[in-house]
Write a structure and sequence with these properties.
Elements: H1 9-24, E1 38-43, E2 45-49, E3 52-61, E4 64-67, E5 73-78, E6 85-86, E7 91-95, H2 98-131, H3 139-171, E8 174-176, E9 181-183, E10 193-194, E11 202-205, E12 210-217, H4 218-228, E13 237-242, E14 254-258, E15 268-275, E16 279-281, E17 287-288, E18 295-302, E19 306-312, E20 317-319, E21 322-328, E22 334-338, E23 340-341, E24 348-353, E25 360-364, E26 376-379, H5 382-389
Helix pairs in contact: 2-3
């Protein structure tokens, strides 16, 4: 029986060609390219923002008094607690009174003596006037009596003035506070001799309200003047303070003074505002947040918010040339727009130039696109839109 034999070479080659043909016509090789990247956009819209400019300033007491002795005497008693608050007319020091009381009595006694002498001189004058009408009267005697009387009257006036001076000096032995305020430490203790040459015994600084003074550059002066000239000037500005620990002070103040000349060495103008400084608690010693000489940050804010074009701060990018945004232009093509920022916060940026109302800027997916690329824009997330609807993004800068 003859067995047939077959060659497998031609079959293997045909199978390979068929498999290659199937592979070329496979649907996987014809997959479409991915579409343009999706991005979240927001429109440039007007929103209210509080304009604010910051400066460094110092707190100053409205009134400051250096207490001194008006007469020379021994200091008998200090009547105040150092570092406490005092009221006007509160007693502060008591000086030795004895010598001044004795001097006052002596001067009063001199007045009484002169008054007695004057009474006798008046009697003499009346007698000479009567005698002048008779043969025994002499004009010279009458004139002498008149002169003596007037001299005594002048002496009494001088003696009464000395009594008044002695009373004033006696009053100076009781040193009282001329103002309400916080008193400092005493520089002299009991038993020492004090007087006009002793210098300041203690200092009193008023506490409520307080001044805040701060220098600003002439450039800033011109900018503020232009910004608020048509809005009420000083009345359009509110003063806020940031304390040294970073907290915002709870009270607001108003501008009330600007210097009449510019400091030439620094090219700055000194401004001053007044701000309340109520006591946090009163007992046992009043404590207030503002202290004379304290360094604070002064924020000049517009009294009323202004409507300005705004976008989320996250949409603002920066390079060596400045700030810019990526906007969606015609045909959904990404465009780079150079911008100038106005008064902004950590969450919202205000735009002065570079964008128009209604322009769409990319705020989400911004890291995946570049200028000239086609994108698929859509509304930004609810979180971004909610942030843009708030007032000032909850921040002031």
């Amino acid at each position: 029986m003859t067995q047939a034999s077959f060659s497998t070479g031609p079959f293997i080659a045909a199978f390979a060609i068929a498999a290659a043909a199937v592979s070329i016509s496979s649907p996987a090789a014809a997959q479409p390219s991915p579409g343009p990247p999706a991005v979240g956009v927001v429109e440039v819209t007007k929103r209210p923002i509080t304009e604010s400019t910051e400066f460094l300033g110092r707190i100053e007491g409205v009134n400051r008094v250096n207490v001194t002795a008006r007469v020379t005497a021994f200091l008998e008693k200090r009547l105040f607690t150092q570092g406490a608050e005092v009221k006007a007319d509160d007693p502060l020091y008591r000086l030795e009174r004895g010598p001044f009381e004795a001097d006052l009595k002596a001067r009063k006694a001199l007045v009484a003596q002169l008054e007695a002498t004057l009474a006798n001189a008046r009697i003499t004058t009346d007698r000479q006037r009567t005698l002048l009408n008779g043969p025994a009267g002499l004009q010279s005697s009458y004139d002498s009596a008149i002169a003596s009387q007037k001299s005594l009257e002048a002496q009494i006036q001088a003696a009464q003035a000395q009594v008044s001076l002695a009373e004033i000096n006696l009053g100076y032995t009781d040193i009282r506070s001329p103002i309400d305020g916080k008193i400092g430490r005493t520089s002299v203790t009991e038993g020492n001799v004090v007087g006009p040459a002793s210098g300041t015994l203690t200092t009193i600084v008023s506490q409520d309200p307080m001044y805040v003074t701060f220098p600003i550059s002439v450039r800033e002066v011109l900018a503020l003047r232009e910004r608020y000239a048509n809005k009420g000037g000083r009345d359009a500005v509110v003063i806020r303070l940031r304390l040294p620990d970073g907290r915002l002070y709870g009270q607001t103040g108003r501008l009330d003074f600007s210097s009449n000349s510019i400091t030439q060495t620094t090219d700055t103008l000194l401004l001053r505002g007044t701000i309340p400084n109520p006591a946090i608690y009163a007992a046992p010693t009043a404590v207030r947040e503002l202290t004379d000489g304290e360094l604070v940050t002064v924020m000049l804010e517009g009294a009323q918010p202004v409507e300005v074009p705004s976008i989320p701060r996250a949409a603002v990018l920066s390079d060596q040339q400045g700030n810019y945004v990526l906007a969606v232009g015609a045909g959904n093509k990404v465009e780079q727009r150079r911008i100038q920022l106005g008064q902004s916060t950590t969450t919202v940026a205000t735009i002065t130039t570079g964008l128009s109302l209604g322009d769409e800027v990319i705020v989400e997916g911004i890291q995946h696109v570049k200028a000239g690329q086609v994108v698929a824009p859509g509304p930004a997330s609810d979180g971004v839109r909610t942030l843009m609807q708030g007032r000032d993004g909850g921040q002031r800068q």
